[in-house]
Amino acid sequence: MSTLNRFKYLLPSLALAGVALTAQADEVTVAYQTTVEPAKVAQADGAYEKATGSKINWRKFESGAEVITAIASGDVQVGYVGSSPLAAAASRSLPVQTFLIAAQIGSAEALVVRNGAGISKPADLAGKKIAVPFVSTTHYSLLAALKHWKIDPSKVQIVNLRPSEITAAWQRGDIDAAYVWDPALGKAKENGKVLVTSTDVAKWGAPTFDAWIVRKDFAEKNPKFVEQFARVTLKAYADYQANPKAFATNAANAEKVARITGSKPGEVAALLEGNRYPVASEQAKILAAPTVKALTDTSAFLKDQGKVDAVQQSYTGYVNGRFVQTAGK
């Protein structure tokens, strides 16, 4: 069964069942992805463990849909997801809250077309095979781009592949294009060209972001852990924003980020520039009307595309800015 179908059919029953947590506050499982961002240095340094006093089991996932499924099962308490899988989860009433915006996505996600595939303009995508992880931010961006270009998605062969699977399929020549993030994006660029980035798609009215989310029941029982987790993350963002070039070109930082994400140390600086990382003074404002609106708009789009069956009357309950407010003090 595809990731999308597993996510679609597993999530509702688990969310409604109120599955008990399997980890206590002194041992927490955190789902991360291979997105290149400043806090990966803090993760490598063990800063989260030092700040929280907890044992953290870091589990790597290849897509937000997989993270959501793990959180729904109770195996994971805190997770890193994109706005599209988050909107889908909220639309299906998964008991989670967004407590920190990890990145406002730009050129770090892009649609790359293979050299020699005969694609020089958007109209050439008709009949071509495009790979994308379903229910991800890139999936949402791909559908939004096709809508902008007035291309019927049914006229394109869209296949559901995880980033590692995209890389393998690209190397075999099985796909003509892919909308993905690094390190798979970088590998595709080696013999392909960027047709559009998420910076462009955001300008067309479909912005995307990455976020840290937490199970509501876990947050209620362990608010200090969530607050300290946010504080460590925001410190990393502040360190980066203070001097992006120095942070990114620091050999030790680059090596740590590359080790966790699978990227190359020499690529880290450019990859970090592909997104924007809101600092503490910006988080509270973003984690209010803007995030609620983004989830509302994304959910409506996903419903139009048949990716979710219904939408919530309000997404306010899926956003909680109090942890970044206290963490920023």
UniProtKB/TrEMBL annotation:
CDD domains: PBP2_taurine
Domain of life (superkingdom): Bacteria
Signal sequence bounds: 1-25
Sequence ranges assigned to domain Solute-binding protein family 3/N-terminal in this UniProt record: 27-244
Protein name: Taurine ABC transporter substrate-binding protein
Keywords, in A-Z order: Signal
Family stated for the protein in its record: Belongs to the bacterial solute-binding protein SsuA/TauA family.
UniProt xrefs under NCBIfam families: taurine_ABC_bnd (TIGR01729)
Biological source species: Jeongeupia naejangsanensis
Compartments, as annotated in UniProt: Periplasm
InterPro entries, per database record: Peri-bd_TauA, Solute-binding_3/MltF_N, SsuA/THI5
